[in-house]
Amino acid sequence: MAIGTWLGLETSRRGVAVHQNALDITGQNLANASTPGYSRQEAVIRTTDPYTNPTLNSSCTPGQFGTGATVDYIRRIKDEYLDNNVRKANTDSGYWEDQIAVLQRAEACFAEPANDGTSKKIVEFFKSWMDLNNNPSDLGVKSAVVELGHTLATLMKANYNQLDSIERSVATISGTTVESGMLVDQVTRINTILTEIGSVTKSIQRVYEAGQQPNDLLDRRDVLLEELSHYGPVQINDGSTKGQPNGALEVKFFGETVFKDDGSEAVVTLEKLSLSYDVVNKEIRLGLSATKSINLTKKEEIPSGNKFGEFGSLLGLENSRQIIMQQKIELNSIAVALRDSIKKSNETINTTNPPLTNPYPETVPTHPDFFVGDLVNGDFGVKDVIRKDPGTNIDGSRARFIAELRDKDIPALKDNTFSDYYSLLVTQVGNGAKSADDMAGNQEAIKRQITNLRDSVSGVQTDEELTKMMQFQSGFQASARMITTINEMLDVIINRMGV
Predict the structure, then answer these.
(1) Quick one: which of 116, 129, 193, 234 has the most CB atoms within 10 Å?
(2) How far is CA 293 from the centre of its chain?
């Protein structure tokens, strides 16, 4: 069988082109070795159709002489199952991650233990009443009682206002509207992500329609989907038809379809998420569609909740807001109990031991209201008339009854003393922040492990790419050498055989 010399030349040319393309792809991988979300690519090389050399005794079917190789397509190395696991781990991690900053800010509000903290001021406040009991007519001691009461009230109001500011930084509510805060910012970002997914999906579909492989666009879409999973549970259906990728995509968020594009211009769904406030039940709801919403305040009400794990940062933020609200309630309970206990003590004193009718000029009835208002309305403090004239409005002879409140178990504080209850609150605040930090650390470790496993499959390993680079370089040089050899053979045939 005779085959022309030109076939070897074309085969070698194809070899040069294949190895050049493979080197280009290797260079792309090395350039993106540190790019977040980048998936390793590789050239899928296959042989080109063989050439037949028909003779009198052979058929004309191909399969006798190879014609070289070609790059069939550029494959994106990806494991969808590992991607799903990473998104799930990202959701679990997000639930705790965004709580840390909120709860740590709350912990900083109390600044305990500290020499000038609220806990110390509670002790000093009751101690001042004991000092007044020892010196009932001393105007200086009375002034100290008022000043310490004012300082204590100011500290408690400051703590409460700081907690309130933290709560509003998560969600500022007016009527049925969630106006601003971290929750609103996250929902806005979610809607932006869905819009970007829609734009990228259209680009992916156009590339597939052109018969090409949109690897970088698919990476971009996966990065967006992974970011979306931080905010809540994400389920993906890539919409492939009979195993053939076409770029179609359906995204479910908390089990509800929020994006769907099947490749048809007529069927595109993009739901804008929204937040609303249920005034009656005091709950924040996340609207997923015109008819579907979920209760962020009570995650146990979310359908099929168990399969979603920790639900992501939206529920994590709302959970931290609920914790802050409870801390505000507990702090206000101390203020109200302090106000009411002193008032009740004075009322009891005046009933069981009424004052004499001016037996001595310095003896006056104790004013029943030492503290007034509460932390919720922001008016908690020492009554103005007492602050202006403590000498007239405080009966030092009865200071003992108020001083004794220091060691009494207060029913309104779950039968704890004021100091013990405040210490319990500070401990709970600290434990809440530490627990969130510990859980976030655990979930981050799990996510990192799963992400590393995924990256071991789809990530770029520079040592491996350098090995491939040398392999493709060697193939390129060999093919080029083959062209040179064939060129020398042709030169002999064309230019020298007739000499």
Answers:
(1) 129
(2) 20
